[in-house]
Write a structure and sequence with these properties.
The complex is a heterodimer. By secondary structure, chain A is an all-alpha fold. Helix content of chain A is 77%, strand content 0%. Chain B has two domains: 185 residues, no CATH class; 53 residues, no CATH class. The chains are: A mainly alpha, B mainly alpha.
Chain lengths: 106, 240
């Protein structure tokens, strides 16, 4: 196990556990409100957009629409998940679809 | 519900553990997928297990193994984890009022098991438990059940990934599929504009700036503008 990996785990633990434990240690009664609360609430959905959309649209570094198995597998996985709200089935569906489209488009 | 309150004295660790079953079952396939992916992306079985043990946060772990594979720096992964998991502050803030007389060891222990799923389950279960001492025990059971499932099934997944080296291009898409499914369940009319803004900014920044910095820039900007917009929309009402 490399020291780089251990450092990664350490930083990830600090960030995650820190967010979980600080309110336990410091909280005196008032909940956060206003801008800070809205900001924290919006971070997850913004992050999902930032993680997914660039990978789907620019898999090789430039924008590709038609011959792009990522994009079409992504759109269809999204539609599938709307109707079948099961994480495991959705991942299996997406992987098999991507595999199929990838072979078709090569 | 009513008949359960009369048995409140017996609501303790074992009760929490039983309640955790739904979350534990839900975690199993995701943790197995994580283990398989982690080993496919070059992690050892120990490394995958260690990450699940200490970090215990689904999305952040999936993102981290992807970034490790792409050669991202340690700091970049740490910063991204912070962005992904900052939402735990809100959940923790909402749970803490159940434990006004908490001690340091309980605080340190209960905090580790707080995930999106255990948070939802805890808030639902704890409000029907009268004594604080019982609530601690129940939350410990819920958290521990979920944690054990996440850890054990990560190990199982990494063993599968290690001993059955499957050559299947679909794995390249597993992570994206996971995020897309999470999107489909969390996208609402209220956050759709922030989503679109983040998508557009991330795309532009990714094409313009090398490295992974586009993630943090686009998320901070989009969530900031979205929150500012919400505040502005609420302002006329709160002034009265």
């Amino acid at each position: 196990m490399s020291s780089q990996f251990l450092e990664t785990i350490l930083l990830m633990t600090l960030a995650t556990y820190g967010a979980r434990v600080l309110p336990f240690l410091l909280f005196k009664g008032n909940n956060v409100q206003g801008f800070v609360r809205d900001f924290i609430e919006l971070v997850p959905i913004a992050l999902l957009a930032a993680l997914v959309i660039p990978e789907l649209v620019t898999p090789q570094g430039s924008i590709v629409i038609i011959h792009n198995p990522y994009l079409w597998a992504g759109v269809l996985t999204f539609i599938f998940a709307r109707y079948v709200p099961n994480l495991f089935l959705g991942i299996i569906f997406g992987m098999i679809l991507f595999w199929g489209l990838n072979r078709l488009m090569l | 519900m009513n008949q359960e309150t009369s048995f409140d004295v017996s609501k303790g660790f074992a009760y929490g553990l039983r309640q955790s079953l739904t979350v534990a079952i839900g975690y199993a396939p995701v943790a197995v997928t994580f283990g398989i992916l982690a080993t496919q992306l070059g992690l050892t079985f120990w490394e995958a297990g260690l990450m699940s043990f200490f970090v215990f946060a689904g999305a952040a772990q999936f993102i981290a193994i992807g970034m490790l594979h792409q050669g991202a720096t340690v700091w970049m992964i740490g910063l991204t984890t912070l962005i992904v998991n900052i939402r735990h502050v809100l959940m923790s803030l909402a749970i803490v009022p159940f434990f006004p007389a908490r001690t340091l060891p309980w605080s340190l222990g209960l905090a580790h098991g707080l995930t999106d799923e255990t948070f939802v389950l805890n808030t639902r279960v704890l409000k029907d438990v009268v004594q604080e001492e019982n609530r601690r025990q129940v939350m410990l059971g819920i958290n521990l059940g979920a944690f054990i499932s996440w850890f054990v099934f990560t190990i199982l997944g990494s063993l599968i990934g290690k001993w059955l080296p499957i050559q299947f291009s679909g794995f390249q898409f597993a992570l994206l599929a996971l995020f897309i499914i999470l999107t489909s369940t969390s996208l609402t009319k209220k956050n759709a504009l922030t989503y679109l803004l983040a998508a557009l900014l991330a795309l532009v920044f990714k094409l313009l700036i090398p490295g992974k910095i586009y993630l943090i820039l686009s998320v901070a900007l989009a969530a900031g503008i979205g929150a500012w917009w919400r505040q502005r929309a609420q302002a006329p009402r709160t002034e009265r």
